[in-house]
């Protein structure tokens, strides 16, 4: 389990609440109440291991997810239940990095139910990705190549000797293992397609794609030439040749790193991570520890939270599970991230999470999160009339996240103007209540809270 | 085949779910009454833009800041020309859209996919070509001389990856590192720092061709749904809430992600101000009928025409066509469904512009991945589909467009070494022509090395 000796630098600065918050937002789904302080108290090494060496079994805190009518949420039975089911795992898990890496692989091997059209296959693929969350990428490549949802998504089940379908072979190299135009030619795409022939499935009305299998008679058993090597390659060779390609480790390291740190690794870190990756026989566990300990992780600039991370993080901070579990898919779609529906096989574009339309989606999600807890003007007691105190209490609603001074000032200004607008005590009480509700909304849509 | 139809059904359902989620949200903020005369039309809006609006709105509880911004943003400057970019995702198959009906080579390349000789409407410029039977609306516009056709647009040494090649078309250069879209760079030259509507993506997200470096652009799901409210907040605190959005977005920072988040918050605040007149549902009425569909395309085009009619300061627009054109499998059904709704919607949009007197201000560029990303391979595969190829098809539509073929039909015999069509026009030349002849700026300011790509005559 222990990483081999490497030249990878380790962050030496203070490890306080702000660093613990960043670690929890990037390697998980943000802190539950009190979690950031607890993690900060452990120090960097132990904090990282809390995430990377989780309990072997999932335990879920709080109530199981229900749909709007109070029925238990089954992931494959209706549109939106898939999204709510996984969101619930993100919110209640005691192994946040397992879920976060499952999300990384979902983006890496981006498969959409728009093309698969069978929720059950999508859920099965999700469980597969979860099994490999902290494991071997090589094992994952072999598993995903045979995965039914992937076979449907990239036409693998139609790729046969008679006329190879290049869809999977191209993306296997371009998006999954090597990178666009890196170390392969159009000829390699065609030869890899031949190596990958032989997977079949049947379509049954009412059932969808079923009976996934490998049929040797549909496989092109002839000699192929791939990456300059010759042989009667079949699908396992196609996977192995990609993983063992000299340009694979550099692609893998750059891409994995980019999920956690916004600027690319320096040359020495890149090399050391490549060596670690190959030395660990393509297992990701030690690499994740190295990235989470790296100075660039804590000292570098912030990252925009993915919409689903933002949503899960808010619900995690409140700590009461996922109410109305079937309703989150629609809102997260407006924010630009419907789970199981990435925009295409390249996954979500991490540079374009925020624009005016997706921002409005996030606004709506925040409203939905806070709505059950909104302070009711008819029953409220104990109202505050000091802007600073109002902001502090609204922050505590979210577990007191660290925000910039500029944002705190803008929030206090909002509360102060609202209180000043009121000319009598009745109106003052009302505006204090509106201000506190409004502050909860504004904190969770503030630019600081959208980044980590 | 049911599989592909399932895909479209799912896709349509997904879109509908998103739309319904949007409708489930309050369209009017608590405390903000419907403006008098809901169902705003162009005249009402123009009156406001001229300054009379103060009196109309003065009697309401609209936040003053949003009101001022809405007018200021919309009323700036003379009415500029507009370029609408419609993207057919996936690489539409050019020789199915415009097919050489009687050519024996076509029959040979497409033994199962070839469209029957007399099935589609004739292409009035050439006796040997016909339109896909689902593209009758395009054929009608073409017969009126309002469609310039580029049957094989591309570039030499086409990169067949979906994403690199698509990126090239989006940035307007064969440069993988370029991070601004070609329309974004156009806006950087002509746009202003306070008007995100100048570059408008209609749909879920910012469209890459519109990505600008210097000026803000906007993305929008629909003009009638851009409102902000919060649970347990009403009265004048609702206006305070919105004004705080502006304050949250204002501070500068060296952190790029935080800066981008603040920029978007500012833009959302400004955009909300500009769209105040559309904040009431039902505010959009169209002078012509649009296709009825679960897909958002017809209503998005109708909304766009209404926004242009209202004088909103829009210069470049991007939206996705209906359909999925990456037809590796079961092409006939997928292509027909996509082409039918897309071309019918485009015809309605053109008629709408004509009815509103806007047809001289708007040109629509339809780029299929067909031509935009790459095309599809000449020879069909064994899955009743076609794999990625090189050159694809594109259209430029508008009353001011010179409705003639550009580049010529590609040879079905003289293919490149990968069995793909050879392009007969270069996408950078097309962009250059649109920039110079329609948008009236030097292509060299937008397209790298623009002078080396000949510009066809597109505008009359």
The number of helical elements of chain B comes to 14
User: What is the tally of beta strands of chain B?
Assistant: 10
* Average residue pLDDT of chain B: 76
Shape verdict of chain B: globular
How many strand segments of chain A? Answer: 4
Query: Please, what is the oligomeric state?
Result: heterodimer
> In sequence order, what are the helices and strands of chain B, one letter per element?
HHHHEHEHEHEHHEEHHHEHEEEH
Largest beta-sheet characterization of chain B: 8 strands, mixed
DSSP strand content of chain B: 5-15%
Q: Could you spell the SSE succession of chain A in H and E letters?
A: HHHHHHHHHHHEEEEHHHHHHHHHHH
Helix content of chain A: 40-55%
CATH architecture type of chain B? 3-Layer(aba) Sandwich
Residue share in helix of chain B: 25-40%
Structural class of chain B: alpha/beta
**Can you tell me the CATH topology of chain B?**
Alkaline Phosphatase, subunit A
Which pair of chains forms the biggest interface, and how many residues does each contribute? A-B, 85 and 76 residues
Q: Which stretches of chain B of 5+ consecutive residues score pLDDT under 50?
A: 1-76, 370-374
- The strand line-up of the biggest sheet of chain B is 6-5-7-1-8-9-4-10
Q: List the strand order in the largest sheet of chain A.
A: 1-2
Rounded to an integer in angstroms, the radius of gyration calculated over CA atoms of chain B is: 23 Å
The amount of beta strand of chain A, in percent, is under 5%
């Amino acid at each position: 389990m222990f990483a081999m000796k490497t030249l990878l630098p380790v962050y030496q600065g203070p490890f306080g609440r702000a660093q613990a918050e960043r670690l929890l937002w990037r390697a998980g789904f943000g802190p539950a109440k009190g979690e950031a302080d607890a993690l900060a108290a452990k120090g960097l090494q132990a904090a990282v291991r809390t995430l990377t060496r989780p309990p072997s079994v999932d335990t879920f805190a709080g109530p199981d997810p229900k749909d709007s009518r109070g029925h238990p949420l089954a992931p494959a039975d209706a549109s939106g239940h898939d999204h709510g089911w996984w969101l619930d795992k993100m919110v209640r898990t005691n192994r946040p990095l397992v879920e976060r890496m499952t999300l990384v692989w979902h983006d890496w091997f981006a498969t959409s139910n728009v093309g698969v059209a069978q929720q059950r296959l999508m859920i099965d693929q999700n469980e597969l990705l979860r099994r490999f969350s902290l494991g071997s990428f090589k094992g994952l490549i072999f598993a995903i190549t045979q995965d039914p949802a992937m076979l449907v998504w990239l036409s693998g089940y139609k790729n046969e000797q008679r006329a190879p379908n290049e869809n999977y072979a191209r993306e296997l190299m371009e998006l999954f293992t090597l990178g666009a135009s890196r170390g392969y030619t159009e000829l390699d795409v065609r030869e890899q397609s031949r190596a990958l022939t032989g997977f079949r499935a049947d379509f049954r009305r009412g059932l969808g794609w079923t009976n996934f299998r490998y049929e040797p008679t549909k496989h092109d058993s002839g000699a192929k030439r791939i990456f300059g090597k010759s042989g009667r390659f079949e699908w396992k060779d196609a996977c192995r040749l990609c993983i063992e390609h000299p340009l694979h480790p550099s692609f893998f390291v750059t891409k994995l790193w980019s999920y956690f740190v916004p600027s690319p690794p320096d040359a020495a870190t890149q090399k050391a991570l490549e060596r670690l990756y190959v030395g660990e026989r393509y297992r990701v566990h030690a690499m994740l520890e190295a990235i989470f300990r790296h100075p660039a992780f804590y000292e570098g600039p912030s990252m925009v939270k993915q919409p689903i991370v933002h949503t899960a993080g808010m619900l995690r901070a409140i700590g009461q599970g996922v109410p109305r579990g079937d309703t989150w898919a629609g809102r997260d779609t407006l924010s630009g991230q419907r789970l199981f529906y990435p925009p295409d096989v390249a996954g979500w574009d991490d540079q374009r999470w925020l624009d005016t339309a997706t921002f409005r989606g996030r606004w709506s999600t925040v409203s939905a999160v806070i709505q059950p807890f909104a302070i009711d003007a008819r029953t409220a007691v104990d109202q505050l009339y000091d802007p600073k105190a109002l902001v502090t209490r609204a922050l505590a609603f979210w577990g007191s996240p660290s925000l910039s001074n500029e944002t705190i000032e803008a929030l206090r200004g909002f509360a102060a103007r609202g209180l000043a607008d009121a000319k009598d005590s009745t109106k003052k009480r009302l505006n204090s209540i509106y201000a506190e509700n409004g502050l909860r909304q504004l904190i969770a849509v503030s630019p600081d809270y959208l980044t980590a | 085949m049911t599989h592909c139809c399932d895909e479209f059904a799912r896709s349509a359902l997904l879109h509908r779910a998103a739309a319904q989620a949007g409708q489930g949200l309050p369209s009017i903020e608590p405390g903000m009454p419907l403006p008098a005369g809901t169902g705003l039309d162009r005249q009402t809006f123009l009156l406001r833009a001229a300054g009379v609006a103060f009196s109309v709105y003065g009697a309401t509880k609209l936040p003053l800041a949003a009101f001022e911004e809405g007018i200021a943003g919309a009323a700036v400057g003379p009415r500029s020309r507009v370029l609408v970019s419609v993207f057919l995702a996936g690489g539409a198959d050019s020789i199915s859209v415009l097919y050489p009906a009687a050519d024996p080579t076509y029959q040979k390349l497409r033994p199962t996919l070839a469209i029957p000789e007399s099935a589609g409407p004739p292409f009035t410029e050439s006796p040997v070509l016909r339109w896909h039977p689902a593209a009758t609306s395009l054929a009608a516009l073409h017969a009126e001389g309002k469609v310039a056709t580029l049957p094989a647009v591309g570039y030499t040494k086409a990169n067949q990856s979906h994403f690199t090649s698509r990126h090239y078309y989006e940035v307007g250069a064969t440069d993988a590192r370029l991070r601004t879209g070609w329309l974004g760079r156009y806006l950087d030259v002509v746009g202003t720092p306070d008007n995100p509507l100048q570059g408008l993506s209609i749909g879920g997200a910012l469209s890459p061709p519109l990505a600008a470096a210097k000026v803000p652009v906007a993305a929008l799901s629909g003009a009638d749904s851009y409102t902000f409210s919060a649970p347990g907040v009403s009265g004048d605190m609702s206006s305070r809430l919105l004004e705080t959005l502006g304050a949250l977005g204002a501070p500068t920072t060296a952190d790029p992600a935080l800066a981008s988040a603040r920029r978007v918050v500012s833009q959302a605040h400004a955009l909300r101000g500009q769209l105040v007149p559309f904040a009431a549902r039902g505010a959009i009425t169209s002078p012509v009928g649009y296709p009825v569909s679960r897909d958002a395309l017809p209503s998005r085009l109708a909304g766009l025409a209404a926004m242009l009619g209202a004088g909103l300061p829009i210069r470049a627009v991007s939206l996705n066509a209906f359909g999925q054109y990456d037809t590796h499998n079961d092409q006939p059904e997928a292509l027909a469904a996509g082409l039918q709704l897309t071309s019918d919607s485009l015809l309605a949009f053109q008629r709408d512009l004509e009815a509103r007197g806007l047809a001289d201000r708007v040109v629509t560029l339809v780029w299929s991945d067909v031509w935009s990303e790459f095309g599809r391979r000449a020879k069909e595969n064994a899955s009743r589909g076609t794999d990625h190829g090189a050159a694809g098809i594109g259209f430029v539509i508008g009353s001011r467009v010179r409705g003639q073929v550009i580049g010529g039909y590609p040879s079905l015999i003289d293919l490149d070494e990968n069995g793909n069509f050879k392009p007969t026009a270069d996408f950078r030349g097309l962009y250059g022509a649109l920039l110079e002849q329609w948008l009236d700026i030097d292509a060299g300011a937008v397209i790298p090395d623009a002078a080396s790509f000949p510009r066809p005559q597109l505008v009359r």
